[in-house]
UniProtKB/TrEMBL annotation:
The lineage of its organism: Bacteria, Bacillati, Actinomycetota, Actinomycetes, Kitasatosporales. Gene3D superfamilies: 1.20.58.1480, LON domain-like. It comes from the Bacteria. InterPro entries: Lon_prtase_N (IPR003111), Lon_prtase_N_sf (IPR046336), PUA-like_sf (IPR015947). SUPFAM superfamilies: PUA domain-like. Residues 5-219 form the Lon N-terminal domain. This is LON peptidase substrate-binding domain-containing protein. Pfam families: LON_substr_bdg. It comes from Streptantibioticus silvisoli.
Length: 241
């Protein structure tokens, strides 16, 4: 069964359970925000987030700039966006005024993964027909979860030391393997293609297995570096569309 969702392409990957703050100022996403606000209060205000593979998060501006729902994503929309994304539920949404005109401040939370079946760019913003993806545990997820938790704590300490920072307190990590796998995927300092690969993992065990290799490799690399810029592990910056 499929569902039709408004689509919000970003230059980052959203994972289930993670919080997404958004500062909305582009016309197409302001239209999306207005439509979400117009929904009944008891309605589920959902939209889809997909990472941009080849394109720009903010559409070009200027007299000759392309306009419309697909602006900035090039001639092949399917090639510009990753096919696996995450649905988001609006937690708060409010209109704001600023020097550049009215915009919106939104906070949403990732809920479930989906696969894009088809894209529609005929309206003011992108729409997609999507199918929800299951979340199977896979073989050995529990054992892998314990190993990943240990490797992640070692990675945090190594990263904090290389950044000449200290960890204020031991971070409490979830004991559910799937939840842990998404937290680690979001908090590890890696590029979008690697995050996307973790989002697309067939099951939790496969994701944890990839993360275990990744954490061990990154920890070893950090250990050979004299210093790194300070990095906030779990705080994600506000995305400006």
């Amino acid at each position: 069964m499929t569902e039709r969702l408004p689509l919000f392409p970003l230059g980052s990957v959203l994972f289930p359970g993670l919080v997404l703050p958004l500062h909305i100022f582009e016309d197409r996403y302001r239209a999306l925000a207005r439509d979400l606000l117009a929904m009944p209060e008891d309605a589920s205000r959902r939209f889809g987030v997909v990472a941009i593979r080849d394109g720009r998060e903010v559409a070009p501006t200027g007299p000759d700039a392309e306009t419309g729902a697909a602006a900035g994503f090039g001639p092949d929309l399917n090639a510009a966006l990753y096919p696996i994304g995450c649905a988001a539920e609006v937690a708060s949404l409010a209109e704001k005024g600023d020097d550049e005109g009215d915009g919106y401040e939104m906070v949403a939370t990732g809920t479930t993964r989906f696969r894009v079946v088809s894209l529609d760019a005929t309206g003011p913003y992108l729409m997609a027909e999507v199918e929800e993806l299951p979340e199977p545990a896979g073989d050995g997820a529990g054992e892998l979860s314990a190993q990943v938790e240990q490797a992640f704590r070692t990675y945090q300490k190594q990263l904090a030391g290389a950044s000449e920072r200290t960890l204020s307190s031991a971070q409490e990590l979830p004991d559910q393997p799937t939840v842990l796998s998404y937290l680690v995927a979001a908090a590890t300092v890696i590029e979008v293609p690697f995050r996307q690969r973790l989002l697309e993992a067939a099951d939790t065990a496969s994701r944890l297995r990839e993360e275990l290799k990744l954490l061990r490799r990154e920890t070893a690399v950090i250990g050979k570096l004299p210093s790194l810029p300070a990095v906030e592990l779990t705080r994600r910056p506000t995305s400006h569309n």
